[in-house]
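LHPL2 protein
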Amino acid sequence: MCHVIVTCRSMLWTLLSIVVAFAELIAFMSADWLIGRAKPSSSEDVDNRTGGPQEPYHPTLGIYGRCTRISHMQFSRRDTLCGPYAENFSEIASGFWQATAIFLAMGIMILCTVAFVSVFTMCVQSIMKKSIFNVCGLLQGIAGLFLILGLILYPAGWGCQKATSYCGPYASAYKLGDCSLGWAFYTAIGGTVLTFICAVFSAQAEIATSSDKVQEEIEEGKNLICLL
């Protein structure tokens, strides 16, 4: 018989697992990893809101995507174009970024799988006599290691031709040059830290769902058990 067990700690772990997976996925897909040096607008570029010349803008560069301003778009309100610069994996600007993409993708795939499974932990607490919380916590720890490897390798690619076109000639491995880090990089770091917190917190979720109070309610014949 399926017993639906909801505790404060298990629910918090589930929510954190989902948030971490989405945060890492959004960061990976974003083009805001590097914010390039300011590029002045031409005298013909006019701001539609003020009627004056447009301010200098900062193009952004991601692992496989970029955002840049398109000039002379008179019939469109949008003047910034975002999209992938690499049509396939081999066109990613640096071998280090290719490795970063692989490690981040592997970590994110594991996190998304755990996030999907975590929704069902309210009804299924074990698989083949193994605690599903402990298994998911182990997977989150492995995903965190993949994410760390990806984030360590990413700055090594700052000296590639694509990066130097955005960051200037002084950009090199682990040196930003004229660029600055965008929100996507910080989000990826924050998500990695939360991944390890989730991995540790999974043990608390397992303890909460297998506590004596839960066992007492199961013995009383309750199918829906909610504990704070």
